[in-house]
């Protein structure tokens, strides 16, 4: 019987792109499945592996867990992830030899640790790039410490995350850094889809919340005189405020035609691919906070695979993929004037942005190609976790 691996995702929004490297384990003789919530809409085609689903706790179960954790009212608990436990997890995990939960602080990671006493190996994926970044109140700190102490192995998906794990006391014998892998046959440039003239076409893809920095784009456009057309893909709690900012900008433009900012909502799959292929650059203006830094930005990697050079803030692990002057542009976070200056230069130099777009694709082929990173993961499993 081959070694059976379960990629564990209790979160409702499963990021199919993160699953790619695990799906490649099948080529090395492992049996791989996704164990996730019934609330997740990810398909087997997107996950590239069979999908098994378990329900999250009912409301009473969520309240009981929260109260047991020491919080007075479960519905307003500061720990928002109790609904991400999976009911019947132990029975669902029984057929597997290795469990790969999503991150240090997710409830299914704690559930996976409980299965070690039944002989399971637990390999924890990690994006967290700020050491000791968790609440000190009970039980959250205890949960994180248990994961750090007891997990068999960690897979930091960035060098920043590896550095954070080392700072928290995880030794080299339990660490193997591996990059995310993308299907570069799917995410690919299409020169025929990109117009050769007209305004600079800039794309933002992500959650519409303050830390993602869309307001930096809007403020920067006040200082840009070159023709720029910005398309915003995504949804989130800041959407109404961002639309209001754009409208205020238009009203105070003093007769000058303000560069358009279009909000088009979430886009996925082929529709997002075609949109990316028609753009010139992708904007990634993330702003660090005391609790969060950009952990890499998969949307940025997909854009780079499509030949879009990113204009990105110097936040978190972004510089691991983007080298200023080579395959993109970097600027200090929350600095609209710096972003405006870059947009002016990029709009005026189509040849340079095409050169950096080619370099962006080359970086993806070298460091983030799915088959290559999947082969590296398989070698890590074979030598440091469990042979197939």
List the keywords.
Rossmann fold; alpha/beta; six-stranded parallel β-sheet; 388 residues; 2 domains; globular; 37% helix; 15 helices
Largest sheet: 6 strands, parallel
CATH class of the largest domain: Alpha Beta
Distance between the termini: 9 Å
**The CATH architecture of the largest domain:** 3-Layer(aba) Sandwich
- Write down the domain tally: 2
CATH superfamily of the largest domain: Glycogen Phosphorylase B
Q: What oligomeric state do the depicted chains represent?
A: single chain
Radius of gyration: 22 Å
Number of contiguous helices: 15
Strand content: 15-25%
How many beta strands in the DSSP annotation?
12
Structural class: alpha/beta
CATH topology of the largest domain, by name, is: Rossmann fold
How would you portray this structure in words?
The protein is of the alpha/beta class and 388 residues long. It folds into 2 domains: 195 residues, 3-Layer(aba) Sandwich (Rossmann fold); 177 residues, 3-Layer(aba) Sandwich (Rossmann fold). Helices cover 37% and strands 15% of the residues. It is built from 15 helices and 12 strands. Strands 3-2-1-4-5-6 form a 6-stranded parallel β-sheet, with helices on both faces. Helix 1 links the parallel strand 1 and strand 2. Helix 1 packs across helix 15, helix 8 runs parallel beside helix 9 and helix 8 crosses helix 13. The longest helix is centred in the C-terminal third of the chain and has 18 residues. The relative contact order is 0.13. About 3% of the residues have low confidence.
């Amino acid at each position: 019987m081959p070694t059976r691996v379960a990629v564990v995702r209790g979160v409702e929004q499963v990021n199919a792109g993160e699953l790619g490297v695990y799906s490649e384990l099948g080529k090395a003789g492992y049996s791989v499945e996704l164990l996730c919530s019934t609330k997740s809409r990810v398909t087997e085609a997107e996950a590239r592996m069979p999908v098994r689903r378990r329900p999250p706790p009912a409301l009473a179960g969520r309240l009981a867990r929260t109260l047991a954790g020491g919080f007075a009212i479960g519905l307003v608990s500061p720990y928002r992830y109790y609904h991400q436990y999976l009911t019947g997890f132990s029975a669902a995990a029984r057929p597997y030899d290795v469990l790969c939960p999503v991150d240090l602080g997710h409830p299914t990671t704690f559930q996976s640790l409980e299965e070690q006493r039944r002989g399971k190996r637990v390999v924890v994926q990690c994006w967290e790039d700020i050491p000791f970044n968790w609440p000190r109140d009970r039980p959250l700190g205890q949960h994180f410490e248990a994961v750090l102490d007891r997990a068999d192995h960690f897979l930091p998906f960035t060098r920043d995350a590896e550095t954070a794990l080392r700072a928290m006391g995880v030794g080299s014998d339990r660490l193997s850094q591996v990059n995310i892998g993308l299907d570069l046959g799917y995410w690919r440039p299409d020169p025929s889809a990109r117009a050769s003239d007209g305004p600079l076409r800039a794309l933002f893809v992500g959650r519409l919340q303050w830390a993602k920095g869309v307001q930096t784009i809007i403020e920067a456009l006040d200082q840009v005189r070159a023709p720029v057309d910005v398309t915003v893909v995504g949804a989130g709690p800041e959407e109404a405020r961002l639309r209001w900012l754009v409208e205020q900008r238009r009203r105070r433009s003093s007769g000058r035609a303000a560069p358009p900012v279009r909000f088009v909502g979430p886009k996925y799959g082929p529709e997002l691919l075609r949109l990316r292929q028609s753009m010139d650059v992708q904007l990634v203006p993330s702003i660090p906070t005391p609790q969060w830094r950009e952990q890499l930005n998969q949307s940025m990697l997909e854009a780079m695979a499509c030949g879009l050079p990113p204009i990105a803030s110097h936040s978190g692990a972004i510089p691991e993929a983007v080298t200023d002057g080579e395959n993109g542009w970097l600027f200090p976070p929350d600095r609209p004037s710096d972003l405006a200056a870059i947009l002016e230069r990029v709009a005026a130099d189509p040849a340079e942005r095409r050169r950096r777009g080619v370099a962006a694709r080359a970086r993806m082929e070298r460091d983030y190609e799915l088959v290559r990173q999947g082969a590296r993961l398989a070698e890590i499993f074979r030598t440091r976790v469990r042979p197939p």
